[in-house]
Structure formats: structure tokens, C-alpha cells
Design a protein that fits this description.
- GO terms for molecular function: cobalamin binding; DNA binding; DNA-binding transcription factor activity; metal ion binding.
- It comes from Bacillus solimangrovi.
- It holds the Pfam family MerR_1.
- Keywords: DNA-binding, Transcription, Transcription regulation.
- The structure is a single chain.
- The protein is an alpha/beta fold.
- It contains 11 helices and 8 strands.
- The strands form 2 sheets. The chain has a 5-stranded parallel sheet with strand order 5-4-6-7-8.
- Helix 8 links the parallel strand 4 and strand 5.
- The two termini are 44 Å apart.
């Protein structure tokens, strides 16, 4: 806890200003000392710093900044409640899948689609469930059979969603594949669905894709991005050879890598590695796919 002098120094305003904000906008400290002195918590100070930055960066008044803070806190509160509700769906769906209960799994997903738009279902159900399935398999908490069953279920549902998503022909064309020997492609499907919901045409080649025939495909379809999932394939030389051979022939194509194994590769000008966070995908899409927007 911090007294008003220290709090004002951290926020970058005077104690008089803090008192005025308290009177006018209800920005009260969390508590007071036994002697009645204001005591600010870390959360109190973080909120005040957020307000000060908004005022400085956007040139707005304190009253407007307080309105924005209120909107932000309300949104975060709603998102927290919704996240808890989604978790109430994720847990039984995961349990149904690892129990090989196909009817129950379909019922849960159908119920989710009756409540939420498909983007919400993707972002808050399919995507976190895919991450959970992969993590539980990697930790040895579920069997290969359970992982395959859950993955195939999600893949089939994703295929159905992609069939109804419109394509914006002016956007870049993408190829999605796993290199030869790589059979885990659930993460690749999640990324493909992310691209498809953003209007991109994605040619999904799936797992265990050999190099043969890709040159012709890239040329004929004028491919601009190649997305690859590398999870279990070992051998940096084989991976790099696969990518380098294609990149040397198609220098304008950007190669995007994901998957646990991809995270371990050394940095290279031949490709860009993305983690599994939606925020990372959205940032990449904004900067590399739609830089002029």
C-alpha cells in the first residue's frame, strides 16, 4: 500500500490532483490508514497511471478518460463472465471426446452454435480445446487414440465451417500443409480456419505433404503465403532443406511456421515462426497480410 505522496509520484500528478479526482470522479483509494490517511493499492495506482497515459497520449480530459476506464472495466467484466461460461462447455466436451462419446460431443457443439456466432465458437471453444488436447497428449495425460479421436472430431467440424465461409478474391492465396513425415495437423487446421474467417482462399493440403508437385501449384495458383505446421518431425536439416528448396524457387512467397517443433528452430530469413496465441495471429495478419488497411 502507498500513501498519497508516493502514489502521486508514481502516477505523475500532484497530491492535490489526486484529491480532486477523488471528489469529482470517485477515484477513491482502496483503504485508509488508522489515522485516516489515504492508502493506494497497486491496482489503484495502475488505474490512475492508465488514466494519465490516456490523457497524455490522446489529449483527452480526465472526465473522458474516466469514461473510457469505466467502459474498459465493464468489457473486462463481461469477458470474464463469458470465459467462465465457455469453460463450462469446454470441460464436458473434452470429457466426451476422451471418453469416445461422439453423440454427446456433437450435441455440445451443436448447442454452442445455437448460442453463439461461429467466430465465438472458434475462438472460445474449438481453439482452446485444440490447445488443451495437444497439451494433454504432450504431457502423457491422454492416449494417442484419445488425441486422434478428439483431433479428428475437431477437424471434421472445422471442415463444415469452412464450407460456408465466403472468400474475398482480392486477398492473397494461401497453401496450408505439413511437410512429409508430419501427421499432426490440428493446429494447422485451426490456423487455416482463422485465415478463412478473414476471407482468404486457403488450399489445404493437410498432413504428410511431399515436395513433389508444389512448384507447379505455387505458380499456377499464384500463392503468396505457405503455412506449415511442424510438431513432431525431427531433424533441422530435413526441415530447412524442404523450406529452402521451395523458398529459393519462389522468393516472393512468405513461409509461416507453427507447431511445437517450429518454435525450436533457429531464426531465419526463410520463414517466420508464430506461436499459438490468437493475438499473435491477428497481429501478423494485420502487419503482413493487410499492411495497407
Amino acid at each position: 500500500m502507498y500513501n498519497i505522496r508516493i502514489a502521486s509520484e508514481k502516477v505523475g500528478v500532484t497530491p492535490v490532483t489526486l484529491r480532486a479526482w477523488e471528489r469529482r470522479y470517485g477515484l477513491l483509494p482502496s483503504s485508509r490508514s488508522e489515522g485516516g490517511h489515504r492508502m493506494y493499492s497497486k491496482d489503484d495506482i495502475n488505474k490512475l497511471i492508465w488514466l494519465k497515459k490516456k490523457m497524455d497520449q490522446e489529449g483527452i480530459s480526465i472526465s473522458r478518460a474516466v469514461e473510457l476506464l469505466s467502459d474498459k472495466e465493464e468489457k473486462e467484466s463481461v469477458e470474464y463472465v463469458m470465459k467462465q461460461k465457455y469453460q463450462e462447455i469446454i470441460d464436458p466436451l473434452f470429457d466426451a471426446l476422451i471418453s469416445f462419446n461422439l453423440d454427446k460431443a456433437h450435441s455440445i457443439v451443436d448447442y454452442s452454435f445455437s448460442l453463439y456466432h461461429f467466430e465465438r465458437v472458434f475462438e472460445t471453444l474449438f481453439y482452446p480445446l485444440a490447445i488443451r488436447v495437444g497439451d494433454e497428449w504432450a504431457k502423457g495425460n491422454i492416449t494417442v487414440a484419445q488425441e486422434h479421436f478428439a483431433s479428428q472430431f475437431l477437424l471434421q467440424r472445422c471442415y463444415k465451417i469452412m464450407d460456408i465461409l465466403p472468400i474475398q478474391p482480392q486477398l492473397p492465396k494461401v497453401v496450408a500443409l505439413c511437410p512429409e513425415g508430419e501427421h499432426h495437423h490440428l493446429g494447422l487446421m485451426m490456423f487455416t480456419l482463422f485465415l478463412r474467417k478473414n476471407g482468404l482462399c486457403v488450399l489445404y493440403l493437410g498432413p504428410n505433404t511431399p515436395e513433389e508437385g508444389l512448384d507447379e501449384l505455387f505458380e499456377e495458383q499464384q500463392i503468396q503465403f505457405v503455412c506449415m505446421s511442424i510438431t513432431s518431425v525431427t531433424g533441422d536439416e530435413e526441415i530447412m532443406s524442404f523450406i529452402k528448396n521451395l523458398k529459393d524457387k519462389h522468393s516472393s512467397i512468405q513461409f509461416i511456421l507453427g507447431g511445437q517443433r517450429a518454435q525450436q528452430l533457429e531464426k531465419s530469413d526463410y520463414y517466420k515462426v508464430l506461436d499459438h496465441k490468437l493475438e499473435t495471429w491477428e497481429q501478423w495478419f494485420k502487419e503482413d497480410v493487410m499492411p495497407d488497411k
